[in-house]
Amino acid sequence: MADKIILEVARYSPERDAKPSFQSYEVPVYKEWVVLDALNYIKDQVDGSLTYRWSCRMGICGSCGMMVNGEPKLTCATFLSSYAHNGSKVRVEPLRYFPVVRDLVTELSDFLVKLTKVKPWLIRHDEPPLTQGEFLQTPDQLDRYKQFSMCINCTLCYAACPVVGLDPVFVGPAAIALAQRYNMDSRDQGTEERTAVLAHPEGIWGCTFVGECTRVCPKHVDPAGAIQQYKLKAALDWVKSFVMPGEHKSKDVRSEAAND
Amino acid sequence: MCAVKQPTTRTAPAYTEFHPRWYRPQVSVYWWLFQRQYLKFILRELSSVFVAAFVVITLLQLNALRNGPEAYARFQQWLQTPAAIALNVVSFCFVVFHAITWFNLAPSAMAVRLRGKPLPDFMVAAPNYAVWLVVSGAVAWLVLR
Predict the structure, then answer these.
(1) Tens digits of per-residue pLDDT, B62-80?
(2) Is A95 left (phi over 0), alpha (psi -120 to 50) or beta?
């Protein structure tokens, strides 16, 4: 393992630059250092103007996602030592497909709007009185959605998904996985409301199943799986709407949404 | 009251309504070329063309069969030309690639549960391979017997 490594960091200042350029910094390599430690070293010791997001340093907050040598990574969970071979460099860039605000900071408003559209919260049509107590759930019921509930909104999956880059209106992997997290929750009654957004060319049908979202997910959420499972459900619902028109309500919800 | 200071120098930020202007990266037309996983995805999508090619060749073969022994002999002659052999070899490789990549993706698309527990991935993929092998074996037996 080399003692030092060159970090090529993307720099972009809206005051000065028309497009980003790279600036190289030499940083020490310690066995326990992650890429975020190297960025903090640069910020503290070399160049205080370097701008990036970070918070928890333990893979929970989802703030420090960046492209590391072309791969979307949580920089707090990416060891510098795994890149530290003789003469090697580490290239750190802002997450792909997002507008860049400054240096490594991306603009997330578009993602947050999409996330809100899929209503990632428990929707109830009836509200039983509090005296009935809490909604009980078996371990099996919890297990059905638990994987999808591990999402930390780090948006690495958006940076991995070429559809997000090519089709900016695509709702995207994390938002659909989170919608599915609530659809699969035994306490939720909002599946049909979400269908209006999800069973749509900008929703699940926009996904071409590249599968990279699942591969890069640091929390093993499997957004690609969530999308394909929802496609299967939407297709079966569509067939059901012909076989049993009275039973199928998604269509009504969709037309209500269109009228809004 | 304090007046809002307007940017006057050439290095001042270009403002949108609320924010300095963002840099919006463009997606290259060749985005799929420089990453192995993306290339694999594009090849998987491209394989559909060769699946269709196999279907068209089979339909043409059936048509030749319907048109009598001479037409069928002509078609068989065409199948023996280097171009047809090359097309068939390439198509076969892509069809195998198509089948394997889709069977491997099946566990992701189907969350099969047995007695409340999710089935392991190989248990969902394996029946696809088993049916493929059985059908291929049956076809090979019919053709080669």
Answers:
(1) 999 999 999 999 999 999 9
(2) beta
* SS3 call for B81: coil
Asked if residue A203 and residue A152 are part of one domain, the reply reads yes
pLDDT in tens, A49-88: 999 999 999 999 999 999 999 999 999 999 999 998 867 8
| Residue B116, phi-psi category: left (phi > 0), alpha (psi -120 to 50), beta (remainder) | left
pLDDT digits (tens, 9 = 90+) for A179-216: 999 999 999 999 999 998 999 899 999 999 999 999 99
Interface A:B, Cβ pairs < 8 A: 78
Question: Chain B residues within 8 A (CB-CB) of chain A?
Answer: 11-14, 19-25, 27, 31-32, 35, 37-38, 41, 45, 105, 108-111, 113, 116-118
* Residue from A11, A13, A15, A183 to probe the interface with B (highest B Cβ count within 10 Å): A15
Which listed CATH number (1.20.1300.10, 3.40.640.10, 3.40.30.10, 3.40.50.620) goes with B36-140?
Answer: 1.20.1300.10
A→B contacts (Cβ < 8 Å), by residue, are 12, 14-17, 19-20, 70, 96-97, 99-102, 107, 140, 143-144, 162, 165-166, 208-212, 214-215, 222, 224-225, 228-229, 231-232
Say what the pLDDT of residue B60 is. 95
Spans of all domains in chain B: 36-140
Do the Cβ atoms of B23 and A232 come within 8 Å? no
Q: Which residue, A85, A106, A127, sits at the end of a domain? A: A106
Whole-angstrom Cα Rg for chain B: 28
* Residue located via tokens 């940083």: A27
Is B105–A212 a contact, with Cβ atoms under 8 angstroms apart?
no
**Taking a C-beta distance cutoff of 8 angstroms, is the pair A78, A91 a contact?**
no
Task: Note the ipTM here.
Answer: 0.83
What DSSP letter does each residue of A171-231 carry, written as one string?
Answer: --HHHHHHHHHHHT-TT---HHHHHHHHSSTTTGGG-----HHHHH-TT---HHHHHHHHH
The reported pTM is: 0.86
In terms of CA atoms, which chain A residue is nearest residue B113? A144
Higher-scoring residue by pLDDT: B62, A250: B62
Q: Which domain holds residue A249?
A: 109-259
Distance from CA of B33 to the nearest CA of A (A): 12
